[in-house]
Amino acid sequence: AYIVLFLTTELGYSFAEASSGIFAMAMAAAIPTRVLWGYIASSWVSPRNVLAGLGVTMTIASVLTGFYGPEWPFWQILGVAIVFTATGLGWQGVLLSEIARCAPPGQVGMATGGVMSFASAGMTVMPLIFSAILALTGSYHFGFYVIGIPTLGAALMLIVVEKKTRTALLQKPS
Q: Is the torsion defined by CA of 53, 19, 11, 150 positive or negative?
């Protein structure tokens, strides 16, 4: 919603161009990529590394969204929006399958439900933070910079955990 408002109020796009054009196409692109991330995480790259990569990419897309300006052509804005939604909407399946895999027997529902309660809290709190930043600064730009911080933090934590896990496995006697 903030992207549509940003495009209409600050960049001069019509509501139809912003919502049915950029936002709708970006959302549609997120559907197949969600399946793609699951395939990659189950076949080629560890789920933690996929999630870390998605987090870093989300951060970059968020920051790039903050840089949108009137000089940006439609296709560049659309490209960043597609990357943003493909990563921002695609991580849940990988996360939930990894939580289910790591959960103790009989505790999958509790573990996945607990994780999603934190995700839901983030989905509730981040728009409020964005709104407060918008109210304080009068600009959407800074809000997009700030909302990238949690995803970068999560990605960095996943990278550290993956590195520690790999190191521990390599040091484990066979």
A: negative
Q: How far apart are CA 29 and CA 31, in angstroms?
A: 6
pTM across the whole model: 0.87
- Closest by CA position to 51, among listed 118, 82, 97: 97
Span of 6-15, 65-74, 145-154, 158-167 with lowest mean pLDDT = 158-167
Whole-angstrom CA distances from 109 to 48, 89, 94, 103, 124 are 20, 21, 16, 9, 22
Other CB atoms within 10 Å distance of the CB of residue 57: 19
DSSP 155: H
Q: State both tokens at 86.
A: 């493909």
State residue 13 phi and psi, 5-degree precision.
-70, 150
**146-157 confidence digits (pLDDT tens):** 999 999 999 999
Average pLDDT score over residue span 103-126: 90
d(CA 100, CA 124): 24
Q: Where are the alpha helices (DSSP H) in 67-139?
A: 74-88, 91-102, 108-137
Residue ranges in 1-107 assigned as alpha helix (H):
2-9, 15-16, 24-43, 47-66, 74-88, 91-102
